[in-house]
Amino acid sequence: MTSLDLRGAADRAELRLDARALAELDEVERTAAILTWRARMLNEHVSARVFTALARQLERAGLHSGRPARVAAMVAEEWRHADRCAAVVEVLGGAAVVELPALPPVPEHEDADALEAVLRNVISVSCLSETVAVALIDAERRSAGPPALQRLLSEILADEVGHARFGWRLVEDLAPSLSPTLRERLGDYLVIALDELASHELAHLPARPSPSVAAEALGVCDGHAARRLFFATVNEVIVPGLQASGLPALSAWRAAQESGAWAGSAA
Ligand SMILES: [Fe+2]
Ligand SMILES: [Fe+2]
Predict the structure, then answer these.
(1) Is residue 28 part of a domain?
(2) Is residue 265 a part of any domain in this protein?
(3) Residue among 256, 163, 144 nearest 202 (CA)
(4) Any idea which ligand is nearest the CA of 79?
(5) Residue 152 C-alpha to ligand 1 middle, in angstroms?
(6) Does 155 map to a domain?
(7) Would you state the pLDDT for residue 263?
(8) Per the structure, how many domains does the chain have?
(9) Closest listed residue to residue 23, CA positions, set 222, 218, 219
């Protein structure tokens, strides 16, 4: 199995944390914080991989106007995020190395033409995942204790806002030209995408509180609050935003809630 090895990240980021913040953690909390940031490091790596595929799919669909180049820049940003998360692992005393699990291929959507295929992925990645990331990272930034960690999360947040906006703009730009049939097909896809989003996010946001205030200040979030924020983001941002572009997101979200194995496991 290959691994993602980002050792030396703390030096690259010139990240140092106040010794007092670290001294407030007991060993269990320190381990929880290391595991949290190591999981984020892996997530960022996965995001870089997804945007690499998306740049190619945008080219294939003929959606130029600088969009593939912008997405290529996002790949570099996701790599930098992985390195920044690795830096936090290191200042917490962990090793910035993680085994890479077998990752499923980024969907090519063989049943759809190039435009529909890339729209599905842009909606899934930017309008869903990145929009949720913006909400969660903003909350983490507010809870972060050490100023250096607040700055690091602010830097990541600014990029994630750009990643989410990219998709929202693309959907807004193309929405007026989408046929009723394509809107309906995208609505069918949204049932699957929203189900997968909820399954993924809830699996990564265990319904338990942060072990302590000190751990929360170093990024181990309160799972109950994070789950509430996730559902609020879907209900108040994602669904209305897609509806405004003429996509039947509300009915898709209701269908996902009825069919999803996660349903009932809210906050
Ligand atoms: Fe990221
Ligand atoms: Fe991102």
Answers:
(1) yes
(2) no
(3) 256
(4) 1
(5) 12
(6) yes
(7) 80
(8) 1
(9) 218
Residue 71: in which H helix or E strand, if any?
Answer: helix 67-91
Q: How far is CA 120 from CA 80, 108, 125, 166, 183, in A?
A: 26, 10, 9, 14, 11
Domain that holds residue 214: 3-259
- Tell me how crowded residue 258 is: count the other CB atoms within 10 A of its CB: 10
The pair of structure tokens assigned to 19 is 């010794």
Q: How far is the CA of 160 from the centre of ligand 1 (A)?
A: 6
**Which ligand sits closest to the CA of 54?**
2
267 within domain boundaries = no
CATH number, domain of 53, equals: 1.20.1260.10
Each residue of 65-99: pLDDT tens digit?
899 999 999 999 999 999 999 999 999 999 999 99
Residue 180 CA, ligand 2 centroid: distance in Å: 30
CA of 78 to the centre of ligand 2 (A): 6
Interval 148-158: pLDDT, tens: 999 999 999 99
* Amino acid identity, position 92: L
How far is 239 from 236, CA to CA, in rounded Å?
7
CA of 215 to the centre of ligand 1 (A): 22
Alpha helices in 144-179 (DSSP H): 147-174
- Sorted by sequence, the CB contacts under 8 Å of residue 45 that are 6+ apart come out as 4, 78, 79, 82, 100
3-class secondary structure, 56: helix
**Picking from 28-32, 157-161, 257-261, which range would have the lowest pLDDT averaged per residue?**
257-261
